[in-house]
User: Fold CheW-like domain-containing protein from Microbulbifer agarilyticus.
Amino acid sequence: MSGNGVDTLSSNEVPTEVSSLLLPLADGQLLVPVDTLSEIIALQSPVSAFDAPDWYMGELHWRELRLPLISFEVMRGSPMPVLRSNCRIAVLSSGNSDGDLPFFAVVLQGTPRLVRVTPADLAGREGDCAMGELMHVSVTGEAAVIPDLGTLEEACLDYRSSR
Assistant:
């Protein structure tokens, strides 16, 4: 471990390719590693959440858990998208399997697409990150956003603890 708290990887430990998914939103797309996605489910109406932020659409029952349903578009300042018949729900791992919120759900505007991402395919893009965004990127010329899963988890838990 180096002095700055960042592990250094030898060149043979850096993955040459990461299987990832492009998750379609009304105003763009998210890029997540394949292992972040737990399941794609049909669009369903969530149980309403009292006095919730606009981006917190309610809660779903999934595998005996109550999952927050998030509109990523609203979280980053866009209007609530129209929910059409092609909409899906992505159940994503928060990356904190032992925490209070191991999964949450995001509304998608279509079906995810598998992409294999190599360092040569990925480039950073300029732009300020809004709430829930970790980084703006370009994947083989397509604009995408890498979500900040920790911030999404924290925002949902903050709302839940406030009621």
Summary: The first helix runs from residue 72 to 75. Residues 1-6 have pLDDT under 50 and may be disordered. DSSP finds two helices and eleven strands in the chain. Residues 18 and 117 are 5 Å apart (CA to CA).
